[in-house]
Automatic annotation (TrEMBL):
Protein name (Swiss-Prot/TrEMBL): MurR/RpiR family transcriptional regulator
Organism annotation: Pseudochrobactrum kiredjianiae
Pfam families per UniProt: HTH_6, SIS
Keywords annotated in UniProt: DNA-binding, Transcription, Transcription regulation
Keyword set includes Coiled coil: no
HTH rpiR-type domain segment(s): 3-79
InterPro entries hit by this protein: Homeodomain-like_sf, HTH_RpiR, RpiR-like, RpiR-like_SIS, SIS_dom, SIS_dom_sf, WH-like_DNA-bd_sf
Family matches, as CDD domains: SIS_RpiR
Highest taxon of source: Bacteria
Length: 279
């Protein structure tokens, strides 16, 4: 599988000069549709010159702007594939020489190859030092990952809440969200409109958004302060959440090591409470 343009940006953004970095950040916030516009439109929205846009796409490894756009069009088509489409494709092209386990392991390897230590460190630091509440939510198939992460994070620090239940109840939780809070959203293709609306409204209330998505990027990226992309594609009708779980565990592990958390004392007190109540 080719690297997505979002993955290429994550790999190389730290080496980009300011103008190209602006182009990269603007594209991520409007992914992938901004890249399908003309160079002039892209440059105007990014606030940089057209030659800067061309240097930016050259840095990503593309010889010219049409090649860059062709890759984005392929990604857009992949975003829109349904399980039915993928299942039909797999029936035509069955690959029995590369076991499913290998695809899963490759997804995990590629996920972490495209996430820099600085990016992960900045996110862990933001979560560890958040002064308000941390809310977690996922979509139809990713909410178990959100619930799993929330269960661990609750042991590490106070004021962690998993948002569950009917979508109508999600909006009620917005009433308690404010500028000191963070919202972690898991959203992979086919992206969930209700999660987009939730993130947009939370952003308007000053909530800091962490999006954990796939290599094609949920549209929630336009509202997110932090974006982590995990590989989810496998030769199946269904996407794989394995890399999402491993990425969540990595964040939990690094949060546990943060001195602000005083994790050892918190875990000790929790164990004492469990013992006292014979849990």
């Amino acid at each position: 599988m080719n690297n997505s343009i979002a993955e290429l940006i994550t790999e190389r953004i730290d080496t980009m000069p300011p103008g190209e970095r602006n182009a990269a950040q603007t594209l991520i916030a409007n992914y992938p549709l901004l890249g399908l516009k003309t160079v002039a439109e892209f440059s105007t929205q990014a606030g940089v010159s057209s030659p800067t846009i061309l240097r930016f796409i050259n840095r990503l490894g593309f010889q010219n702007y049409p090649d860059f756009q062709a890759r984005l069009q392929e990604e857009l088509a992949a975003q829109l594939q349904s399980p039915h489409n993928r299942n039909e494709s797999q029936q035509v092209q069955q690959d029995t020489t590369y076991p499913a386990l290998e695809y899963t392991l490759e997804n995990i390897r590629e996920t972490f190859r495209h996430i820099s230590e600085k990016q992960l460190s900045d996110i862990v630091r933001a979560l560890a030092t958040a002064r308000g509440n941390i809310y977690l939510i996922g979509g139809r198939f990713t909410d178990p990952v959100a619930q799993y992460m929330a269960a661990h994070m609750t042991v590490i620090r106070p004021h962690v809440f998993h948002i569950s239940g009917q979508e109508s109840a999600w909006r009620d939780r917005l009433l308690d969200m404010g500028k000191k809070d963070m919202l972690i959203v898991f959203d992979i293709r086919r992206y969930q409109e209700s999660l987009l609306h939730l993130a947009e409204t939370a952003k308007s209330r000053g909530v800091e958004i962490l999006l954990i998505t796939d290599q094609w990027l949920s549209p929630i990226a336009r509202f997110a302060r932090h974006v982590l992309a995990a590989r989810t594609g496998v030769p199946s009708a269904w996407d794989s959440s394995a890399a999402l779980f491993v990425l969540s565990e990595s964040i939990i592990r690094e949060m546990t090591r943060q001195p602000e958390q005083n994790t050892a004392a918190r875990i000790k007190e929790l164990e004492e409470l469990r013992l006292k109540n014979r849990v």
